[in-house]
Amino acid sequence: MSKFGKMKESSRESMSAVSLSALNDAGLSPREVDSAFYSNAFGITEKQLHIGPLINTSLGIPEKPSIAIESACSSSSAAMHEAYIHIASGADDICLVAGGEKLSHLSTMEATSYFAMGSDYAYEAINGVTFPGLYAAIAVAHMNKYGTTQKMLASVAIKNHENALSNPHAHLHRKLTEEAYLESPVVAYPFRLYDCCPFSDGSSAVVLASEEKARELKDELVEVAASERAGSVATLQERKDITGIDGAELAGRKAFRKAKISPSEIDVAEVHDCFTIAEIIATEDLGFFKKGKGGEAAIQGETALGGSLPVNTSGGLKAKGHPVSATGAAQLHELYEQLLQKSGNRQVEGAEYGLAHNVGATGGSCTVHILKRRR
Amino acid sequence: MSKFGKMKESSRESMSAVSLSALNDAGLSPREVDSAFYSNAFGITEKQLHIGPLINTSLGIPEKPSIAIESACSSSSAAMHEAYIHIASGADDICLVAGGEKLSHLSTMEATSYFAMGSDYAYEAINGVTFPGLYAAIAVAHMNKYGTTQKMLASVAIKNHENALSNPHAHLHRKLTEEAYLESPVVAYPFRLYDCCPFSDGSSAVVLASEEKARELKDELVEVAASERAGSVATLQERKDITGIDGAELAGRKAFRKAKISPSEIDVAEVHDCFTIAEIIATEDLGFFKKGKGGEAAIQGETALGGSLPVNTSGGLKAKGHPVSATGAAQLHELYEQLLQKSGNRQVEGAEYGLAHNVGATGGSCTVHILKRRR
């Protein structure tokens, strides 16, 4: 993955660079790629659609098939799922997945408006609600139903900023104190500035190979033990309950069934924390904590490094940053390093199973991957 | 598929409607869909990304996974390929594919500019070349190398307008004479207005099932004998030769190999005729006619109804219309009806094999499907 933050490169340049870097890491030449899966949901802000042939041409493989996959903030996880299915079908042996986004050329107002096109534009965005407002509604409902507090929200932000300090790829390298959190401006009650992930530029890539090919390439491997997707009712106002995300629960259950493990066997998790409340409900939806207990787990350090289940060791979307289409593949990048014990200061000792949970919009699309260390 | 032309509905509404219609035709309820693949490349002009959960919610299946697939003008063919791979992998038994586009709210200038984002924006569009200009360069090269004439181009347009007259879904129901063609304004030499497909609104959908499921549903079936994709160097200026499209040739060769047939066994073909020259080079790239002989074949009626290989019996992009993301699935719709002998006045008698050829941009992405009647 690239450094997240602000980049001068276009998405196509940055995605080409991380693709080449991932292929190098895998010991592969681009020519060995069978199919390429790219995500660049907001490429239109760079006036560029149909990015696949551009990246393939720059990698020297114009003849290879490529597609662009969009699933809002879960785009590159959805791309990874397609690559997984391609290999499972026997059609391909080696697939390249890359996601990237450049947003820093937009004003915050423009970026917020483009992001809002990932919600139901005709019912939500057009009436003035953007993602901070939608997730704030989720937070208020969670606080009302379960007694979740603002200090619990703060604890998620503080932990993720702390984790990001030891991640060289992270956008925000800034220790966050509870005082600074409480002094930051209100964005949409109960969210303060530090409840919200930043707008980031960046790219990330994953190379997926069939077991046979992977064995030829590496001694230490990470296996995809599950790749599962599900959806939820698109808009908040049509849901029965907004204190959890149905699609995330369903994708999680399917993934645990496929991997034949239970939530307690996960050693490290990257979850979709576009806002602090999102991490709390993710840990509940996935069965790591009981419904309504995610906030308490966070404030008690259960999800910190050294806790019972370290969550978002990378810094998460909150502090590593959230270049929309790069996020899913970046979560997998963090798990890959964790499972191969390459995470330095933020290493979860002996991690065997990692889970990545990536949500599109307010959960209309959800993807859960379970990765396993293989030796 | 919907009527192509101008629609009041949004893409999400139209795509929901054709999805339901395709499921009804297959004798399926939406609940039986395992995964949904949607294409809506220019959804951003309706301020809507992440269209999958919206359509799934309107179909009453919010829990099902969906993704949006973009491959410029070949988006829904690429979506069909993903569905095909999902079923081949055993992950899914029934997949829904739908593509749609609404463009009539844009001015011609705006629509041309959005389309140009499917080219290499930084090298092509930004310097003033849009798709009519790019394909005009291809046409000039073909004329110079092979002696292709403007009358040959005209014959493609006249044939496709004629075919569209008997297609109730077609955008343009207007008989075209050579005189009218020659009197129409020059768009980009050698193209006159009638060399260019129109901007159209519309949607189309396909239901794909595993052989076992399909057998339970219908007696008369259409089999996907091949679904193959390939790419080409992204920009014209970096290609060695622009009188053909490498990716289309490669995808075609792969498809014939997979289906175990030769080009001469195809009874009816839908090919990507965004401009008249595109149909001529498609028939050469696919091996229906020798390189440089496509124009002659067209003017001699080989590709007309009753000719040796009827091409674009639907009217093609040229006259049926080209609602970008609906085009690939609409080609499959035409072949489905042809192979089931449901094409009325434009029926190719006894058609057993049909081929669909769909190109993204100037051929950066190419998808070829071969369909076969099964009884």
Walk me through the structure.
The structure is a homodimer of 375-residue chains. With 375 residues, the first copy, chain A, is an alpha/beta fold. Chain A has a domain at 129-197 and 220-374: Thiolase/Chalcone synthase (Peroxisomal Thiolase, Chain A, domain 1), CATH 3.40.47. Chain A contains 13 helices and ten strands. The first copy, chain A, has helices at 11-26, 51-58, 75-89, 108-116, 131-146, 150-165, 178-183, 211-217, 246-259, 276-285, 294-299, 316-319, 327-339, and strands at residues 35-39, 66-70, 94-101, 186-188, 191-192, 202-209, 221-231, 268-270, 353-360, 365-374. In chain A, the strands form three sheets. Chain A has a four-stranded mixed sheet, with helices on both faces. In chain A, strands 7-10-9-8 form a four-stranded mixed sheet. In chain A, strands 4-5 form a two-stranded antiparallel ribbon. In chain A, helix 2 (51-58) links the parallel strand 1 and strand 2. In chain A, helix 1 (11-26) packs across helix 2 (51-58) and helix 6 crosses helix 10 (276-285). The longest helix of chain A has 16 residues, at 11-26. Chain A is globular and about 55 Å long. In chain A, 63% of the residues are buried. At the A-B interface, helix 2, strand 2, helix 3, strand 7 and helix 9 of A face helix 2, strand 2, helix 3, strand 7 and helix 9 of B.
